[in-house]
Amino acid sequence: MLPTHNAPNHRKKRRKLSRLVRLLLLISILLFFGFLFYFFTREHSPLVNEQQHGQKQTHSIYESRRDEDNTNVMAGETPQKQEPHNAKWLQSVREDFLQQQGKVLSSELRKDNIIGGAGPSKMHRVGKIDFTDSELKWEENSNFMNMPQDSTQRDQMVDTLDFAKVDWTDHEDDWTDEPTKEELNEYSKQSLKKVIETIIQNQRQQTSTDGSLQSSDSSRSSSQKSKDQQSYLWFVFDEPQEDRTTNSENNNQQTAEHQTDSTTSSHHGLTTEEKASRVRAAFEHAWNGYSKYAWGHDEINPVSKGTNDSWGKFGATLVDALDTLFIMGFRDEFEKAKDFVRRLDFNQDVTVSFFETTIRHVGGLLGAYDLSGDKIFLQKASELADRLLPAFNTPSGLPYHEVNLRTGEGKNPSWTSGRSILAEVGSFQLEFKYLSHHTGKDIYWKKATHAMKIIRQNTLKYPGLYPLLLDINTGNFTGSKISWGGLGDSFYEYELKQYLLTNKNQQIYRRMYSESIVALEKHLLKRSIPSRHLYVAEMEHDETNSDFEHLACFIPGMLVLGAQEIPERKKDYKFAVDLMETCVDLYISTATGLAPDHVSFNTHNDRDYVVRDPKYMLRPETVESLFYLYKYTGSEWYRRMAWKIFLNIEQYCKTEAAFSGIRDVTSTQPQHDASMQSFFLAETLKYLYLIFVPDVIDLQKTVFTTEAHILTRFDK
User: Fold this and answer.
1) Which residues contact 386 (CB under 8 A, 6 or more apart)?
2) Per-residue pLDDT tens digits for 263-321
3) 313: left (phi over 0), alpha (psi -120 to 50) or beta
4) What is the H or E stretch that residue 627 is in?
């Protein structure tokens, strides 16, 4: 037994030991939670989070034009995993990145191989793929250190890549002298080597500063190696903002210079004049088929070569295409069509759509009058409008959906339960006001302004956003659905264009338009997952949904037009650019390179969008917006995208007689739908043509109707 005087010493030792054990336990717990925190942050880094949820943070130039949580593919969308076959993979990268924004270079590094692709639209300037002047930025947790440490070995790895097999023709119009494939191969390799060296040097500097990056393969755990997400490196090339969104005071001069230079550039070996000729030839092909097989009828069946008379049998295709004939210089065909118009008799026992007849026939006749000055077109437009006037014989003064041209009997459709449609009662004003101004008949003006007054008298739950349906008796809105797509689209377009048509003298429409755009941005602009595409949602019962129609792709063009014409709306350029890229992506993401008619964007899972209606109807809205974006920014990207769309139309829609829509854009062998609506000649091919020709139309002096008929502005 130990002496009692030693007991206190033992108790002290036990207390010290106990404290030491507790301290070690605490340290172990802290280390454990530290490891969990490290693991969690690795698993949920911005880069991995983007891979899993499509919500990557970015430090590109585009931060300045996005909400902090609304970044999208322009700042670096995660690429689809590809097979590491160099040329094949690089060509896929070109499709995935150069077509989608042309902004991002993504490289995935593996132990014994490098897989890389490049994408900024500046990269081919003066015939070189040159990144040396670009500012490189990269995400945390990216690592180039598993590359060989010897620069000679790295260069040898790059030399194994064969860039010469890659088709870079999409960007030849950025070259002053077209390089050979061999030159491209050498330029590409040298440029990629410089990029790798720059990144490795910067990462070494960062490693020496904070020790956050490891310099050997052994530092990477097996679990890390198994995760492809952790081996991605993202870096963004800062490109001048004005390249896509030039809207400064000297915009017109910059745009003119850009267009002058581009007329001599090549793209698939064609000058811009030659591309315009290709579009003109496509129009001629369709016109000749219509003239041969369906002259005087509303439409040609482009497959069977039969006819369709859905619009009253007044030659809808012919009348709708009059101003396109004139613009493209088909003078003989124009004169022949004028003879047909001269003999038109609208005193027929036929019921027609008030809205469609106004925008296709009345608008087509007015467009022909505006360009040619021939009063036969104004006379016929007035005769037809007089036959449409009985449509206004309603308790509210809003026009019926359809009217019989002889009896004047009108009615609304049963599928709306007898209610009127917003786009129909709010999208005839340009045509009627122009007609009133040039004929001196006040009746057209009064009908147009009264309809707008009835619409404005409503109290809106969301000021600036108008429900789709109205009571024909009271003029009050019924229902709660709000959409900028079908049934609503052109109403918002005509808010702006009524203001412009009267040389900006009717301020009420400026205020209406601005109020609608503010509401659009506040309530309906949304982002998809994972690509963060900006889209315009629909709303019903105070809830938004992610439905998006091709029809809504007119919005980017409208936004940039409004930004150009209304000083306080300059900021809308940023939304126009993002929406334009969404609409283009709907084209380039399909098997045919043509957009589906209706999609639903995803907001909570890993599929970007679901196709609801896969047909393509030769619609014009996307190329219409490309026209405005190109004309007002001067960026060649918009013209390149328009050309790609045109080539896809030629490949998949051209028939022996004309052009046809297709039933499924997701199929590599789509079937024709046997329909060529008149707007294909009136709008789609017109906008495509005008993108590639000098400014034959002065946008500061004219307004395009919703059917792309060109009306000169006037004072009122």
Assistant:
1) none
2) 444 445 689 999 999 999 999 999 999 999 999 999 999 999 999 999 999 999 999 99
3) left
4) helix 621-633
CA-to-CA separations, 71 to 96, 413, 683, in angstroms, rounded: 18, 43, 33
How many other CB atoms sit within 10 Å of the CB of residue 609?
21
> Which run of H or E residues covers position 300?
strand 299-300
Six-digit token string for 485: 């797509």
Q: Helix, strand, coil proportions of the chain in percent (round to 5)?
A: 55, 10, 35
Written as one letter, the residue type at 695 is D
Catalytic site residue 664?
A: no
DSSP secondary structure of 251-267: HHHHHHHHHHHHTT--B
The one-letter code for the residue type at 41 is: T
* DSSP string of 34-48, one letter each residue: HHHHHHHHHHT-HHH
The identity of residue 5, as a single letter, is H
Q: What is the largest CA-CA distance in the chain?
A: 132
The Cα 535–Cα 575 span in angstroms is 10
More confident residue, 84 or 344: 344
Rounded Cα distance between 128 and 131, Å, is 9
State the catalytic residue, choosing from 278, 360, 419, 639: 360
Query: Are the C-beta atoms of residues 338 and 700 closer than 8 Å to each other?
Result: no
Q: What is the DSSP letter of 213?
A: S
* Contact indicator for 382, 435 with CB cutoff of 8 Å: yes
Is the alpha carbon torsion for 262, 268, 272, 274 positive or negative?
positive
Q: What is the rounded CA–CA span in Å between residue 78 and residue 520?
A: 28
- Asked if the bond preceding 8 is cis, omega within 30° of 0, the reply is no
Say whether 77 is catalytic.
no
The C-alpha atoms of residue 589 and residue 608 are separated, in whole angstroms, by 11
**Which of these is catalytic: 489, 585, 597, 608?**
489
Q: Is residue 238 a contact partner of residue 61, using CB atoms and an 8 Å limit?
A: yes
| The one catalytic residue among 77, 108, 621, 624 | 621
**Using CA atoms, how far apart are residues 42 and 225, in angstroms rounded to an integer?**
13
pLDDT tier for residue 459 given thresholds of 50, 70 and 90 = very high
What confidence score (pLDDT) does residue 244 get? 52
Long-range Cβ contact pairs of 515-523 (< 8 A, separation 24 or more): 515/463, 515/464, 516/464, 516/465, 516/466, 516/492, 517/464, 517/559, 517/562, 517/569, 517/572, 518/464, 519/462, 519/463, 519/464, 519/465, 520/464, 520/465, 520/484, 521/575, 523/462, 523/465
Please state, in angstroms and rounded to a whole number, the distance separating the CA atoms of residues 439 and 715. 15
Q: What is the pLDDT of residues 86-125, one digit of tens each?
A: 333 334 433 443 333 333 333 332 222 222 333 332 222 2
Residue 489 known to be catalytic: yes
356 tagged catalytic:
yes
Structure tokens at 402: 């359809």
> Which residue in the block uniquely carries the two structure tokens 């917006």?
625
Question: For the residues of 554-601, what is the DSSP string, one character each?
Answer: GHHHHHHHHHHH-GGGTTHHHHHHHHHHHHHHHHHTSSSS---SEEEE
Once rounded to an integer, what is the mean pLDDT over residues 364-393?
Answer: 98
Return the higher-pLDDT residue of 466 and 260: 466
Distance CA 584, CA 24 (A): 60
| Residue tagged active-site, from 170, 356, 431, 597 | 356
Q: What totals of helices (H) and strands (E) does the chain contain, helices first?
A: 26, 20
Residue type, 161: L
Lookup: tokens for 384: 């037809």
